[in-house]
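ARCHIVE ENTRY
Sequence with per-residue tokens
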Amino acid sequence: MVRDKIDFGKMKVGELFVRQLIPNVLGMVFTALFIITDGIFVGRGIGSNALAAVNIVAPVSLFMTGVGLMFGMGGAIMASINLARNKSNVANINISQAVCMSSFLMILFSLIVCTFPEKASLLLGAPAGILPEATGYMFFYSLFAVFQSLLCVLPFFVRLNNPNYSMICLVTGTLLNIVLDYIFIFIFGWGLMGAALATGTGQIVAVVMLVVYLLRPTANITLVKLKMSLKSIRLSLRNIGYMMRLGCPAFFSEITISLMMLAGNFVFAKHLGVSGVAAYSIICYLFPVIFMLYNALVQSAQPIISYNYGRGVHQRSQRAMRMALASAVLVGIFFLFVSQVAGKSVVSLFITDTGNPAWEMAVYGLPLFAIDFIFFGINIVMAGYYMCVENIKRAITFTLVRGILPVICFFVLPLWWGVNGIWLAVPVAEIVTTFLIFITIIKERYKWKNLSGNSIPASLSQKQI
């Protein structure tokens, strides 16, 4: 097993990045596997109405995950910087504050939703035909809100000690989830309640494993008991506010994916009907999985970037960023290549009837949409980099730009390019965002070149690339 303490300041950046990347990617792969398997079990074991009910609850799941990513990323950035400045006690307080606040918010959220599950389902647009299923699933799924959120928060902190153990916890929870899905749905016949209980049980086991690890006194960073004096509470609220500002771009990333899906559903339905929506649903299934891989790249680079940023060694931070950026481009090229040469095979995984209009639309549109994958990765990594170096304003700006532009493009581009405009709406939005990011970088470098005479200073402020 890898030793607990990782030296983010002295080990080679490439070695650190790979050491973080492999378990992160494997953990994301297993999570993606669960999403696909869970859909198969619900669809084949319960029926299409159950799948529709799960889809209604999807925004709730994205919200829980978004809150977890916000506190996980924000807390990890603060902890990494404080570790770099030899403030391990402050780092321990940071992660404990993140865990406590995210748990409090999710307990409150769970109480509200579980008290009014039918109203929550109606608010999310549940049709009358599946309202009972959606309401039941909403209730049981929301019972475990705190564990889903913590499953996003805690791995950030465990990775500062031992990324391999973090992966083991995620894989264990996922495998247990899959096994219990089969038992509860196919053997016990518990329907959507069984699906929710299987998910919740897997999350609980993984969270317990992560918490036990962070309570070990020998760990490089541990959970500690927070003081409850008035002064301590005021300091905690200040830290939590800054933590949420640091991590809110990660939260917004989840929300923008929801906006993209909602806008796309509306436009595809308007121009191409039900078959168009079915074709677009394949993209909606693939997109979060690809996002997970890019997220793994950001999370792998985060402790390296933040730690060395805290030490003032910006060359190492930027080296880690460039490695994540190059990896994102390679991943994007790979998915673009697969979409171009094996698009029919990819579509056939979801729609088996090759004579179906939806199959033909998806085969035509997937290669066009896949242009997005390269630029999507670049934008995710760069927004993540700015979070890691505390440039919150820039991270939020680029995250919101790449969230709002697709919605605009969905409504504008079809007027110019017809059906092609619908499929190219998201790629065009991501390309524009990438262009804005690189214009910003070039302007920043030009400004510092003029100020310093001929070169960029070795030590850059928090607002510099």
